[in-house]
Fold Abasic site processing protein.
Amino acid sequence: MAGRLHIASLDLERLLPGLGVDSPLVTSPNLAPRRPLSAIRLEADRPCLSRLFWGLTPPWLEVLDRAPHCARAESLEARPMFREAFRARRCLVPVSGVYVWRAQARFKQPFLVTRVDRGPLLLAGLWCRFHTSLAEHTDSLALITVPANSLLGPLTDRLPGVIAPADSHRWLDPRTPPDEARSLLATAPMELLGAFPVSRRVNDPAHQDPACAYPTGPMLCRNPR
């Protein structure tokens, strides 16, 4: 799934030229759900970075702990919570990695999934707006997950969908037909992503130091160097 994110300082202007910035990128070596998170949305036909709450909170949601932080790509249009947002309010979440946990005999071993070249990733998401008054509102998001490829399948069954920078405008644009947007939610090619084991220190979201992401073993990837 996607229960924790690694977000380093990223050169987003180079990744998406012309990107507007409403608020600085949220960085964290170990970001848990139900925290502020930076996302890219289309504003006046221009991608813009702003800060949202990680956990989709539609107006009728009564218990914050039930705010979903992920949505399965296969059920986006089957569930009312996600259907409208997927058609009209798609976003991208820039990260440097996603933590996953592999079950073992005595404990779960954490891994950090990254691009093989350690470059930034744009994760597919959707967002909604909750008006707290006539003048104030809160925006929130959920990541969209897809099946993991066969290389990373032994670590996790699902990962957030990765959108290529070249497809970012099509993904963000509400005028893009749902079928076309859905076609971008493909399992990541094995050449793109790798994963390496990290310290179990990352298990506690209170730990916010770089050691959370230090490799404790070699990277699992399609073409080891």
The first helix runs from residue 12 to 15. The chain has a mean pLDDT of 91.
